[in-house]
Amino acid sequence: TDLNKIRNFSIVAHIDHGKSTLADRLIQETGTVEDRDMKAQLLDSMDIERERGITIKANTVRIDYEADDGETYVLNLIDTPGHVDFAYEVSRSMRAVEGSLLVVDSSQGVEAQTLANVYHAMEADHEIVPVLNKIDLPASDCDRVAEQIEDVIGIDATGAIQVSAKTGQGIHETLEAIVKELPAPTGTLDAPLKAMLVDSWYDSYLGVIVLVRIMDGTLKKGMKVRFMSNNTLHHVDRIGVFRPEMQMIESLGPGEIGFLTASIKQVRDTRVGDTITNERNGTPVALDGFKPAQPVVFCGLFPVDSAEFEDLRDAIDKLALNDASFSFEMETSAALGFGFRCGFLGLLHLEVIRDRIEREYNIELITTAPSVIYHIYMRDGSMLELHNPADMPDLTHVDHLEEPRIKATILVPDDYLGDVLKLCQDRRGIQEDLTYAGSRAMVVYDLPLNEVVFDFYDRLKSVTKGYASFDYQMTGYRQDNLVKMSVLVNDEPVDALSTMVHRDRAEERGRAMCEKLKDLIPRHMFKIPIQAAIGGKVIARETLSAMRKDVTAKCYGGDATRKKKLLEKQKKGKKKMRQFGQVNIPQEAFISALKMD
Ligand code: GDP
Ligand code: MG
Hints:
Blueprint: E1 6-13, H1 19-29, H2 45-52, E2 59-66, E3 72-79, H3 87-94, E4 99-105, H4 112-123, E5 127-133, H5 142-153, E6 161-162, H6 171-181, E7 194-203, E8 207-216, E9 219-220, E10 224-227, E11 232-235, E12 238-242, E13 246-249, E14 251-252, E15 257-261, E16 275-278, E17 297-303, H7 309-321, E18 327-333, E19 337-344, H8 347-360, E20 365-367, E21 374-378, E22 383-386, E23 398-413, H9 417-426, E24 430-437, E25 440-448, H10 456-463, E26 469-479, E27 482-489, E28 492-493, E29 499-502, H11 506-520, E30 528-534, E31 537-544, H12 560-575, E32 577-580, E33 583-586, H13 589-592
Helix pairs in contact: 1-6, 3-4
The chain binds guanosine-5'-diphosphate and magnesium ion (MG).
Organism: Shimia thalassica
Keywords: Cell membrane, Elongation factor, GTP-binding, Hydrolase, Membrane, Nucleotide-binding, Protein biosynthesis
EC number: 3.6.5.n1
């Protein structure tokens, strides 16, 4: 295809502002899909999958559009994941296209993910076309939102296209703007192949499918290619494009976006951002800035029933095949036995994997407290990365600790600002900025990641009744006074409940945790002390008193079925508990005890 007739773009938006609906309309208006085959949210087979965690991936569609100038253009839309955990993938896929439609709900305005995503687009040097969506709604206020886009984002929004992705109004104008305002790609045909690996996922029929953007040269069926990051060679079996269903073709040239298959067995063998070139006489320079996505949040996953350890290993192995950003190694815990220490891109990623293991593989799990990676500087000058509080070395050898920090951006209606500031302050945040855009405030905080990984989202949502939006990026490491807090139940340390805390907060956290555990652990026939300690020093303590009577005694003696039911319920409850010394601790205690109210 002639480069001048290609436009590559993505759509950036806050969740629910209408990205998928707009994509559907663009596909429909151009006749890419016959009306009778049109179902709502075509590209969203992915969204559903995303909820189930199967692919948290970009998706793409190639559209032919006959513009008002009489020429036919090829429009390639790459959809990007919207969640902060996958920021790295968003920023990579942005580099595969030249422009973005910035979709803002004109009845709502700019939100935190609008900002985060538009910044990715700006970093990728995109031409940006603002689109005000949902103009059919009575609450739509295009002037106000256009002004807000100019104030907060700093791009000209006077000519923003007014659209209703629902009714189809403004869709033609959007297509014309894509052709007229977005630049055509550049690239050299007679140069060695240089293609960006934009995304990859597993397909049960075709094996691993690799989405590529050709920068220079030609990718042809049957050729041998080299993946530059790991220097592996592959034979290209198929080449194709998405319309949005797969259509096989013979080759892809500069500026084009499509896919290849090459009998690759595992997604793990492909890396987003990698450069693909010819086997021989390939491009001398790879695309810059490639780095594999790094896990930032770690936790232990243990089977509730220790007999299921091998099943868990099997489940984790399978999941890892299709998810290169998920890492794991075997872990042994004195309290929980055999399990795995797993690394994730963020909390959502953690939840997705944990859910899949429980639902698809039917293994009940104990999840230990999520932890970030601490840098421990030893007195001998060496540094180690601590992924698990249980591995904290002897303090006499430790010089100091550093923890990862983030820059968090929160947009919130005025009314809730006070609560948000308090929450951030409570989480050791340092306020960096506070500005207003209409009746919404934008606050920027420097926060320790470990204060955010646990229940920050939940808390933020609850204090703002769901009206706040939030986004963050990692900024670096900083020294602080951090200590390991251990928990002892019936005088036995429960390693899976160890956490790293700030020294100044340790007493408060310790007390809260002991109180929670006291409620979560059922009474036993004997008294159980529950303690939090730093080193050998106990900083908080609760005592769970002994059970006085048979629990069934409170059921009226005569009702046998009721009694039976209660006993059965207890039996079931027991299955979800683990024995620590003489004490049974229920599964949910490991997570609930760490939540802070
Ligand atoms: P996404 O999360 O950005 O992909 O948003 P969706 O496309 O899934 O849209 C979110 C919700 O807004 C859905 O219920 C859509 O039907 C609705 N929606 C999208 N565009 C419009 C529009 O122009 N007008 C109205 N009234 N609703 C819309
Ligand atoms: Mg969507």
